[in-house]
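Hi again,

Forgot to attach this to my earlier email, sorry! This is the prediction with magnesium ion bound. I've pasted everything inline since the attachment limit keeps bouncing my files.
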Amino acid sequence: MYNVTLIPGDGIGPEVSKSMVRVVEATGIDINWEIVNAGLNVIEEYNTPLPDHVIESIKKNKIAIKGPITTPVGKGFKSVNVTLRQALDLYVNLRPIKTFKGIKSRYENVDLVIVRENTEDLYAGIEHKVGDYGAESIKIITKGACERIVEFACDYVKENNRKKLTGVHKANIMKLTDGLFLKVFRDISEKNKINYNDLIVDAAAMNLVLNPEKYDVLVMPNLYGDILSDLCAGLVGGLGIIPGANIGKDYAIFEAVHGSAPDIAGMNKANPTALIQSAIMMLRYLGEYDAAKKIERALEKVFIEGRVLTIDLGGNATTDEFTDELCKYVLEGVKAY
Ligand code: NAI
Ligand code: MG
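Structure tokens for the complex follow:
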């Protein structure tokens, strides 16, 4: 049995979490979900969107899956997601972006993975005003952070039989910061005998739109990773289907890429696929490859059949109807299409 911290989150979070739990349980894997909440919905009770017991629960269980959290604007609270990443030193943000048979998208054979540095760069949050003149934000790039993210990317390439690693940067302009990232990227890729190349971030943006099929694993500093991973989500059918993980040496938190979707919250309309795909990543992280495969095949079958799809994918099924269909196929143990 596994102990997993489950943070349902805000908006559509509770609906997609409920769906995800049903689908994972249909595989027969025994998980004890420790449900603790964070976000807008707990501020009144705890006077913070991230009560200490949430972090304690993750530290105890070492693994968590979370729904989206609405960022309280102008209330003086720090972002829950950023705080969690810092408190647990989750230095990798991993986003596999793959076309799903059956889901309409602009491209057919996209299968790439973005490895985003998750702790520094312009997200260090070191900003100040400069009189009436303007403001400054400081970009921090350290050798240690570059080394561990590139090491992670190289291990990922080897462990998953990937073909190529691309380092994304803007070292032609930011010679010291991105220059350091690029040097570390080249040295460590060389040492690991990985097939690698590097690409300037603006060219990467264009090439990912023109020929996404040509990319495999990409590693980059925080800000470029934030932007390019959303761009890549758009290549394969949008936010409703893309999973993500925040991983550190000791802990991991799995979560969908999308936000709390207040416009459809509580309406039984949300597509739970992104969180379900995050659960697939979690099952693989736990070494439960068969269960992960079962869910993947069930999703593929539902998409190819195309009878029971949520509204964002052009169907008219509710979250619950989609989940019922998926659970049926997980229980049947469908073969690969
Ligand atoms: P959003 O991703 O919540 O919504 C953008 C659009 O996509 C909306 O029209 C929404 O209905 C649709 N959408 C998103 N997920 C969907 C799903 N699973 N099924 C069907 N449709 C879906 O982005 P938005 O509106 O910019 O942010 C809303 C809130 O979420 C904000 O407070 C934001 O800060 C927060 N957020 C939280 C994240 C997290 O906790 N990881 C990530 C991104 C945003
Ligand atoms: Mg983002």
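DSSP finds eleven helices and twelve strands in the chain. The chain has a mean pLDDT of 95.

That should be everything now.

G.
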